[in-house]
Model the fold of this input.
Amino acid sequence: MTHQCSLDWNIDDYKDETEPEEHWELRKAFMEAHKGRFSEEYLVALARTFTNIEFMGCSYPAPVMIRIAELSKEVAKKYRESKKGKLQRTFVTASNAAENKIKKRHSDTVSSTSNKKS
Done:
């Protein structure tokens, strides 16, 4: 699968106008790093898979995750180094958010009740 493939295509043709610039730059870097090693279609799919994992926390079957980890090692390393110290978002599932809200209400009620007894 890593034989010489056509270089006669333009990576920039795959830029999605709705894609955040940061996502595009990372996806583009991945494709630039491996252009010519895979077919155009396969590399575009690998790059999209890589950014889905990196930005959205998607997971795929183990062989895919291993392949992406191997192929993205240098690209991801550079990207992650550039992100150190920057604000990070944390995503919480709706069920966890609801549970935390209920716990907070409960602790506020308990705290309020104990303050009245004092």
Observations:
- The chain has a mean pLDDT of 83.
- The chain has four helices and no strands.
